[in-house]
Specification:
28% of the residues lie in helices and 27% in strands. By secondary structure, it is α/β, with parallel strands linked by helices. Strand 1, helix 1 and strand 2 form a beta-alpha-beta unit. Helix 1 packs parallel to helix 2, helix 5 crosses helix 9 and helix 12 runs parallel beside helix 13.
Length: 478
């Protein structure tokens, strides 16, 4: 097969996914299984919640990567973006001349049509921060409005206990990732989608293993914005200077949202009465509706404004939107309470970028006014294990009473001259008057926390990985 064309054959029965345990790949695998395909996958370092999702959907996952996992029985191989060209399964796939494609190509082909014919209208949420929550909320609004949506999202929606759904309705909600597509396609995943409505929540430097610098990130989003069709709608966050710079030349309909008086959609007044936040949304400077949500923080209210504006563009009624906001249970690993033992609450959050860490600590404070905020951070992403954010992280923990920083677990994968230093971060935090400590591993963190935690404390664990199942181990130890 010509690898440049990546043509998906007509008669497909058996599909194998290499690196199946990524959130998007896991969702795709489950969706394909639900559509009646025979599905298998392979990956290494498998951990919940995706491993649980795959198991619950009856999808066998082979540990590690091995050429023997690929055979002539495979009608199609979907290659995850974490897979290198020298991966033994990718090598074997090419040797056997099997048809293969990337994840977004498979999504468009297998999920992007109604009853196999008419194309669904894609609603694509992009941005450095907030895209998972915004896309999840929009999918829930569509569902509550009876529009039977399809979605593939990079987080487990608690309302569905899944990050995918195959619906019969005309809309498909997609989390548009700026990360590269595959080893044979280094462009961003979101470039494969053709949105009827797009959202850009924020643009900051991230994915240092893919993007050389900040300008490269800006360029990727600029290409996405410029490719939108003239009849598409773009909802653009008005508080982001990069977004404001990139949107004026777009040929599509651009509707800013956020806080500016000139924006057609903006956040009005709000107040917090735990566990609820009540807020107004203004349309053309007039209070359009009032809502309630259990989501924490102003940044999530901005996410809500984006989702509501998208829903209103689809003519969804205010009562349906209000019911969805009130009943939205959030996304696993986004300020998720994992348990409470002896008065100590353990929260799990996906935060890893300096901005996300800062905002997460800031927004949980009003909900735990009586106790201490103990922040536990594992630098694990390809960006956070590099020193690109070494000088940014010290400014991200100001709202915490105690900070525990783990040594990055995969630091050996980063060239020595590029490595992030957890010890330096602790020194910098201490110099700013913050009670910070360095830990070489997870066990020592658990021992420390069980010794010092007291009723009323919130232990906020932040990592994009499994963190050695610290949440459950900690709850058991407490």
């Amino acid at each position: 097969m010509n690898s440049e064309l990546n043509v998906i054959p007509q008669n497909v029965h058996r599909i194998h996914l290499i690196a199946v345990c990524g959130t998007g790949m896991g969702a795709l695998a489950c969706m394909l299984k639900a559509q009646g395909f025979e599905v298998s996958g392979s990956d290494h370092q498998v951990y919940p919640p995706i491993s649980t999702l795959l198991k619950d959907n009856g999808i066998p996952v082979m540990e590690g990567f091995d050429a023997s996992h690929i055979s002539l029985d495979d009608d199609l191989v979907v290659v995850g973006n974490a897979v290198r060209s020298d991966n033994p399964e990718a090598v074997r796939m090419r040797e056997l001349e099997l048809p293969y494609c990337s994840m977004p190509q498979a999504i468009n082909h297998f999920a992007g049509h109604v009853s196999g014919c008419a194309a669904k209208k894609s609603l694509v949420i992009t941005g450095t921060h907030g895209k998972t929550t915004t896309s999840s909320l929009l999918a829930w609004i569509l569902f509550c409005a009876g529009l039977d949506p399809t979605f593939i999202i990079g987080g487990i929606l608690r309302n569905f206990d899944a990050n995918f759904r195959t619906g019969g309705g005309p809309y498909m909600v997609l989390e548009g990732d700026e990360y590269d597509t595959a080893y044979f396609d280094k462009g961003p995943k979101f470039m494969h989608y053709d949105p009827a409505i797009a959202v850009v929540t924020s643009i900051e430097f991230d994915h240092a293993d893919i993007f050389e610098n900040e300008q490269a990130v800006h360029s990727a989003f600029e290409k996405f914005i410029q490719k939108l069709r003239a009849d598409s709608i773009l909802l653009a966050f008005d508080q982001d200077p990069v977004i404001r710079r990139l949107t004026p030349t777009s040929r599509c309909h651009v509707y800013p949202y956020g806080l500016d008086a000139a924006s057609p959609w903006r956040l009005g007044s709000y107040h917090i009465t735990p566990p609820w936040t009540s807020f107004e949304i203004l349309r053309q400077n007039i209070v359009w509706a009032e809502f309630r949500t259990r989501m924490m923080g102003e940044h999530n209210l901005w996410n809500a404004v984006a989702a509501v504006a998208a829903a209103a563009s689809l003519q969804i009624a205010v009562p349906d939107i209000a019911e969805a906001l009130k009943t939205f249970d959030g996304v696993k690993r986004r300020q998720e309470i994992r348990g409470c033992k002896n008065g100590v609450t353990v929260m799990d959050d996906f935060a890893h970028h300096p901005t996300a860490v800062r905002e997460t600590i800031r927004v949980v404070r009003p909900f735990y006014p009586e106790g201490r905020i103990i922040a536990v951070f594992e630098p694990r992403t390809n960006s956070s294990m590099r020193k690109v954010f070494q000088n940014d992280y010290p400014l991200s923990f100001d709202g915490a009473d105690i900070v525990c920083i783990r040594k990055p677990p995969l630091l050996h994968k980063i060239p020595s001259e590029e490595r992030f230093s957890s010890e330096q971060l602790v020194n910098d935090l201490s110099a700013r008057g913050i009670n910070a400590r360095f830990f070489p591993d997870t066990d020592t963190i658990i021992a420390f926390l069980t010794a010092i935690a007291k009723p009323g404390d919130l232990i906020l664990v932040m990592s994009n990985g499994g963190f050695d199942q610290i949440h459950q181990l900690l709850l058991t130890a407490l």
